[in-house]
Fold this sequence. Notes:
Elements: H1 18-45, H2 53-58, H3 75-88, H4 90-110, H5 113-124, E1 130-133, E2 149-153, E3 156-167, E4 174-181, E5 184-191, E6 197-201, E7 213-224, H6 236-270, E8 272-273, E9 276-277, H7 282-310, H8 316-340, H9 352-364, H10 369-381
Parallel strand pairs: 1-4
Antiparallel strand pairs: 2-3, 3-7, 4-5, 6-7, 8-9
Helix pairs in contact: 1-3, 3-4, 3-6, 4-5, 4-6, 6-7, 6-8, 6-9, 7-8, 8-9, 8-10
This protein binds 3-thiaglutaryl-CoA (TGC) and flavin-adenine dinucleotide (FAD).
3-thiaglutaryl-CoA (TGC) binds at residues 94, 97-98, 132, 134-135, 141-144, 167, 234-236, 239-240, 242-243, 245, 316, 365-367, 371, 375, 386.
Amino acid sequence: MADFVGVDFYEMDEMLSDEQRLVRDTVRKFIQDKALPIIEDHQREGTFPISLLPVIAEMGLLGAHIPDYGAGMDALAYGLIMQELERGDTGIRSFASVQGGLCMYPIWRYGSDEQKDEWLPRMDAGEVIACFGLTEPDAGSDPSAMRTRAERDGDDWVLNGVKYWITNGTLAHLAVIWAMTDDGVRGFLVPTDTPGFTANQIKAKYSLRASDTAGLVMEGCRVPEALRLPLAEGLKAPLTCLNEARYGIAWGAIGAAMACYDEALRYAQVRVAFGRPIAGKQLIQEMLVECVSEITKAQLLCWRLALLKDEGKAHPAYISLAKRNNVAMARNTARMCREILGANGILDDYQTFRHMVNIESVYTYEGTHQIHTLIVGQKITGESAF
Ligand code: TGC
Ligand code: FAD
């Protein structure tokens, strides 16, 4: 497969620091050399490429944005990592998003010092894999409707309920579970070998096949008070974690779009129809220009968002706008690129169709496109339309 050189129509590369460029290029090379040669096999088999984990951890990508316990990189470097991982496959970026953004982050933000010391170094090293259980079979967009309960029993909590669509679910050693208590939503660190805990893989997926997605069942699952996140109070706690992952997704979507655009452009330059390369046809150029315009706009959006995030000024609605825009952009880009590839576009010799179907999940998870429309709508009008 030809080396990927990035999509940088507006010469934004020169705005990167040497460190940010080094991080981006290191992950780009890792994806090129190690992930792309094996990803289609995992796509066919419906398995996560776990063999990549030691290198991902070694490069510091899991806790990339976690201070003290991880590499503590700035928001732009973290975003570039997510972009490059998703250029390989959404499943690889999802693994890192969940481990870092949805599991290390709540322990770092809401955990006790003992919890941080016990879990974060091993999670950063990839020795402990974690999953984030918020969604349930009947509570997705509206997590306040969750039925999972945690009841206090002496020094313990007893959890009962079902979480569904949980990334890393069967791989995980530790589940960050959000459950309703008499005092509202609380967060629990549940080791997955706790009696009463089971994880069942969801296999029949067309999308995100190279990712582990599971249902978690908790039947009388007993965990000590020491495994409750002491500073997490109310639904605000898990929703705050979502900001981290949604930010990464806004960048990741650019990576998926870049992969498709790069493939379609190269293809158009060599595929001949009516006596000349299709890249020389006006209608093909229109599609390619649409792709590069939208990728460039998405890059600029993320650039500004990264600076706001580092300044502590990235309002959740700003993140929603970027997730909503960039994922829709990647979805449209993938479809246009698939079209440019003609019949070959439905083969797994090319990566565009894989990205195209993966993006259907991304359009839905971490807040659907519609939910992000309503979050931004509420911010600009002051009216809740949920
Ligand atoms: P609402 O009353 O609006 O909010 C409750 C409290 O939370 C605060 N809040 C936030 N705080 C920080 N960041 C955010 N993004 C926040 N959103 C809300 C809010 O200010 C309030 O605070 P307070 O102090 O007043 O108590 O709650 P609501 O029940 O009306 O719901 C609002 C809504 C719909 C926006 C929210 O429920 C939502 O975002 N729904 C979407 C659910 C979602 O995104 N689930 C994702 C599950 S994880 C996942 O998909 C992982 S994919 C993994 C991968 O990458 O592979
Ligand atoms: P629903 O909430 O039932 O929505 C169905 C449709 O109704 C959508 O189109 C939605 O936009 C629309 N809708 C809902 N409310 C409104 C409204 N008020 N106005 C207009 N339209 C509305 N969750 C986790 O907790 N952890 C994970 O690790 C995780 N990983 C995932 C991995 C994959 C591959 C997938 C597909 C999902 C994952 N999820 C995870 C779950 C994901 O967050 C939910 O699927 C998502 O929040 C949407 O919930 P739902 O599927 O129940 O859809």
